[in-house]
Design brief:
This protein has helices spanning 17-29, 33-36, 47-55, 67-84, 99-110, 114-127, 135-144, 149-153, 159-174, 196-203, 205-208, 229-234; strands spanning 9-12, 38-41, 182-185, 188-191. By secondary structure, it is an alpha+beta fold.
């Protein structure tokens, strides 16, 4: 008898618009996705996390993005949200500390509110364009998710959560994750929004047929989405050639 693969693994990042859009569509098809997959946050580590990861002999399978790729990503995201009919406010990242939301999410998971906190963080970042590395913003997300803001913000200073974060990034290294979002089920691997259908057809054929098709809405103007992507890159915003991003 052939043994079924272990539970699927989903590597996600609050930073990535492709992660946001993929998970949005995944949950539309499989509302119980938070319970049925193993979720691993993935982000550009600070010095402390990076040193702990290196001590384990792990690294990132990631190629830094060129300016041309930055521009493509900005315009591609605009096209995707227009076709999905999703309102969006474009966030600008200046010297972000990605441990704040991602380790905060691990703290929320420990408290049994991973899904609620996830929803609040993505709403803050992608619907309102807020800085999710700002402790005040994250505190607001925690409160709305029914969590103690002090516990969520204290995650960056919690040795156990730091170690758990390193575990997640080491798992990404061992699973050859080179971009986000990334789904792995047994020997099967799927990278990016356009591979979600293939993953569902393999893992949950019953759910694959329920994935909503994208609908072109040419007149839609997502709130805050820049028309001049050059200006975003020139200002040093959104992406600064670091890991944890969108491909």
């Amino acid at each position: 008898m052939t043994r079924a693969p272990a539970r699927p693994r989903l590597f996600f990042s609050f930073r990535s618009p492709y992660s946001w859009l993929t998970i949005r569509r995944l949950r539309a098809a499989v509302p119980t996705a938070f319970a049925e997959l193993d979720w691993f946050p993935y982000w550009d580590p600070d010095v402390q996390t990076g040193e702990a990861l290196a001590a384990r002999g792990a690294e990132f399978h990631y190629v830094q993005m060129s300016r041309a790729k930055h521009l493509y990503l900005l315009m591609d995201t605009k096209r995707l949200v227009q076709h999905e009919g999703v309102p969006m406010a474009w966030p600008i990242d200046i010297d972000p500390h990605w441990e704040v939301p991602h380790l905060g999410w691990l703290a929320a998971r420990r408290a049994g509110r991973a899904e609620l906190f996830y929803d609040e963080v993505v709403a803050a970042r992608w619907e309102r364009g807020e800085n999710i590395c700002d402790p005040e913003v994250v505190a607001g997300c925690a409160e709305r998710a029914g969590l103690d803001p002090a516990v969520i913000l204290g995650a960056v200073d919690d040795p156990q959560l730091r170690a758990e974060g390193v575990d997640c990034l080491e798992r990404a290294y061992l699973d050859d994750v080179f971009g986000i979002p990334y789904l792995k089920w047994g020997r099967h691997r799927f990278w990016g929004l356009d591979r979600l259908d293939g993953f569902l057809e393999l893992w949950r054929p019953d759910a694959a047929a329920t994935v909503p098709a994208t609908v072109a809405v040419p007149a839609l103007a997502p709130v805050g989405l820049p028309d001049r992507a050059e200006a975003i890159v020139a200002a040093g915003g959104y992406d600064t050639d670091t890991t944890g991003g969108c491909g």
